[in-house]
């Protein structure tokens, strides 16, 4: 019987995840049953939300069990099919495993349209991160010409799309990122009006205020913590805050403390709204169609940070918390066979 | 020339306000110019938001100047009129002064309709606090049958109206208050499903969870601080939080710290919205009409805590921060002359 490899959760992290939390295990390659297909992983996604699933606590995501393979969005190739809807060679995406091969119910896979873009984008700008940016910005931040839109983790998979979509809406766009290279990409290539390197900036409050002389009308929050504190200080009347992620807090071992700022919401009559992209299933296609259009028009750039080799998947994941990735963080797992 | 008395801001409080911050001053009674009226104060309101105006900091309310008379909502009697719209003996309400008499532009006064209720209610259940409760609840909390609505400072001028209106919408209602007498009023007289004395409760988190076995669908937040922390732990998916006041924080001298809880908003997709009743000027009359109807139908009870004597106005105000008032805190300043 053929073998395959998968990454299993070896232990739950305390604070920052480490390599000890992951174990690479060789197992029998599974065989598809009726209605199922065998998928070979070509690209595997790593995402900040996965940190929550490594935790044994109630969250919007079911926690992973220790000793089980971990889950991930994957772009893969159908190798064997016991379903009428797919045949070998088809490129699909779905929520599969940190694994070189996995079996999935055909109903839970989506066909990837290579005309929309490179297939890797199906877990990036034309996948969950892109749709997250699209609907979070449109539905909650509601940018308009003349607005200032602020986005944290602006050089990430979600943030970089948010910023460019906000520009297309006519807004002024400012963001934070964790390196000078990212700041340069944002301001020089993507045309952000300003960007702040939060790691080297001594006075974050002052820097945000200076970069937003007319205040902030909408904030797309991927990060939380002190960046969010500084942004809230500049919120305008009737501003909108979309809470998408709080990566600055995910590795905290104690309940993180910060200044109480709800009085700001009274003064500004601001709205703060949490959201999950899974609530936009019925509008997923609308977002993909628009994102693809913007890419083809040259209005939307994206970058992918591809780590080569399945054995390096934990490195790719851990790098998310170091702010290493510009754009979408991916693992190149295998090559197409057909 | 006739004299009158007014309370002036003697100094800005540091932390909790004290009597030293107020000075009772006798001044010449002002005379109305063209288009103005002289109003004798019958009832003066004291409200938590006034703490913000004693501060020399940017807020939604202009700070008061040291040495100036302080401002307040007042129910008064027109003694002299140089305006066509009012004549002596008319009962009016408006934003006047902590003063026995004041002159106001006739355009800035509203006539009080005694058929709606006792005239004192024009600064209470049929005034700013009632309208605050009505639109904050309706517009943001949006209660429905089957929902659990939580309200902090539930025995106060705003909170007690919020709770009863939520009941009229068919919701289960739970609140916090600062004495056993208040808890009894809420549960025995107003029919709250549960109420918590936050001052004597050792385990606030546990008490809120126990009182809300199906979680919380809407939270009307008058208080902030630890009560709000405990409530956020129980927020349901797609719940709504109206931020009306944060009285627990108003006397803090340092930036108050607390647990960072924005991740809760992602998990629940909750919305948190600050509001000011001044944004509902164009719907003020709608609220008054409904509130008056509910009172006349016996569906809406209210209480007023009337401190007698203008010289005791600071005591009435300071009592707000001790949680002394059940219902609307008022000062009885003078008697009608006509």
From TrEMBL, chains A, B:
Matching entries from Pfam families are given as:
ADH_N_2, ADH_zinc_N
GO molecular function per UniProt: oxidoreductase activity, acting on the CH-CH group of donors, NAD or NADP as acceptor
Tell me which InterPro entries the record gives: ADH-like_C (IPR013149), ADH_N_2 (IPR041694), ER (IPR020843), GroES-like_sf (IPR011032), MDR_fam (IPR045010), NAD(P)-bd_dom_sf (IPR036291)
Q: Does Oxidoreductase show up as a keyword for this record?
A: yes
Q: Where is the Enoyl reductase (ER) domain?
A: 17-331
- Keywords linked to the UniProt accession: Oxidoreductase
Name of protein = NADP-dependent oxidoreductase
């Amino acid at each position: 019987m053929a073998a395959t490899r998968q990454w299993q959760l070896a232990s739950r992290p305390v604070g920052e995840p480490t390599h000890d939390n992951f174990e690479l295990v060789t197992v029998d390659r599974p065989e598809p049953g009726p209605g199922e297909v065998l998928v070979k992983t070509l690209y595997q996604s790593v995402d900040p939300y996965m940190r929550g699933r490594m935790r044994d606590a109630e969250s919007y995501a079911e926690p992973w069990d220790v000793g089980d393979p971990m889950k991930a969005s994957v772009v893969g190739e159908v190798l064997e099919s016991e379903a009428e809807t797919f045949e070998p060679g088809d490129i699909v995406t779905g929520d599969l495993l940190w694994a070189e091969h996995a079996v999935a119910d055909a109903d839970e896979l989506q066909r990837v349209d290579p005309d929309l873009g490179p297939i890797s984008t199906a877990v990036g700008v034309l996948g969950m991160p892109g749709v997250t940016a699209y609907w979070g910005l449109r539905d909650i931040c509601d940018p308009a010409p003349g607005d200032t839109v602020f986005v944290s983790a602006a050089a990430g998979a979600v943030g970089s799309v948010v910023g460019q979509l906000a520009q297309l809406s006519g807004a002024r766009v400012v963001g934070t990122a964790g390196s000078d290279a990212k700041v340069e990409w944002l301001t020089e290539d993507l045309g952000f009006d300003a960007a702040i390197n939060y790691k080297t900036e001594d006075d974050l409050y002052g820097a945000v205020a200076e970069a937003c002389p007319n205040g902030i009308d909408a904030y797309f929050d991927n990060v939380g913590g002190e960046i969010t504190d500084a942004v809230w200080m500049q919120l305008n009347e009737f501003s909108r805050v979309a809470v998408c992620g709080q990566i600055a807090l995910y590795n905290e071992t104690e309940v993180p403390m910060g200044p109480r700022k709800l009085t700001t919401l009274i003064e500004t009559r601001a709205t703060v709204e949490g959201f999950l992209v899974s609530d936009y299933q019925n509008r997923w296609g609308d977002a993909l169609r628009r994102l693809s259009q913007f890419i083809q028009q040259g209005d939307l750039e994206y970058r992918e940070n591809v780590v080569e080799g399945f054995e390096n998947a934990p490195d790719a994941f851990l790098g998310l918390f170091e702010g290493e990735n510009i754009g979408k963080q991916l693992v190149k797992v295998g090559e197409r066979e057909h």
